[in-house]
Design a protein that fits this description.
binds 4'-deoxy-4'-aminopyridoxal-5'-phosphate; Aspartate Aminotransferase, domain 2; seven-stranded mixed sheet; globular; 14 helices; 44% helix; alpha/beta; two-stranded parallel ribbon; Aspartate Aminotransferase, domain 1
Length: 393
Amino acid sequence: MLDQLEAQAPDALLALIKMHAEDPREDKIDLGVGVYRTNDGATPVFRSIKAAEQRLVDTQDSKSYLGPEGDTGFVDALKPYIFGKDASMGGRLEGMQTPGGTGAVRLAVALAKAAGVKRVHLGVPSWPNHAQILQDVGVVTCTFHHAKADGTADIDALIETIEAAEPTDAVLLHGCCHNPTGVDYTDEQWEQIAEAFAAKGILPILDVAYHGLGRGLEEDVAGVRKVLAKVPEALVAYSCDKNFGLYRDRVGAFYMIAKQPSDLPAITSNANALARANWSMPPDHGGAAVRTVLRDGDLTKQWLDELDEMRARMRRVRARLAAADNEAPGLNLAALGEQNGLFAMLPLTKDQIASLREDHAIYMAGSGRINVAGLHAGNTDKFIAALADVIEG
Ligand code: PMP
């Protein structure tokens, strides 16, 4: 039986990590894997999380099972950051903890399917796992262009998609810090998106995986809130793995916004059943650490400071790249200054990407995606010079 399986393509980014690790050149640069890095290239545990973890060690008195909804204190503590001051949304909002943002996206798609959604529209390029999840859950993936060549969002493509959608369609959008392009919708465009969703009445699935890494905690969810203010129902997938630095602890949350409060028990019972069949219940530790941070004023302040520091660093790198627009003509580095989050796409050929790796020890995904957090004051000039070199060929 098992010998019937055909080998799957290896994960290209994991292969890149291995190549980078084996490269002996001391000035090598890793722009591949999607984690935040400090000026020294480290991805440290947040100080606020360390302190919260210490408190958990000292005070947690049981690791007995919770339910499929996980740590409800964690789920509730996040709500005001995502949904704003009136985080109850008139009793139409309920959430649950998930294994990372990935678990939340999977649950959103599976719940949408259970409710009758047949096709999900996805702006491309997107995080590769979006398409894999849609396929695995068993809905049809329809695609539209996310970004234009000038480095801004293709709003017309999205609006046309929404307007032409069938009632059993859903649309999956990145809330902020689009992966892999870094291209987010503007506030005015989010207004338009909200209007289009409201007019059509189809289900939005909003994936918020980099909250606070773009413009600010409030700014990064302003678009999501505009949509939620206009539509009758929606699903939100949320990750704490970047903005609390918890990656491998797998910390996420899934929120359901119902047409009316009386719809919520049936919706959440379906989500619970799906969670039980998928993973039974989410891992506890990371969510408990986030709850501990958010329930303590001092730790919350420390977390906000740490997030500010990360965001400011990425904005500095983006500004430096944008200022080098003339040094690498044709790459439109200027647009990177306006874009958000960890990622940007450079219109490089396969040969240019290979030359960056072989001749300059610079590692990036084959798609041309770079992790801007892999750059810092000590290596950005080298990166820009290498770009200029490979462009000249
Ligand atoms: N959505 C997007 C757009 C992502 O880029 C990612 C991961 N990088 C996720 C969801 C899932 O994040 P997590 O690691 O929390 O599963």
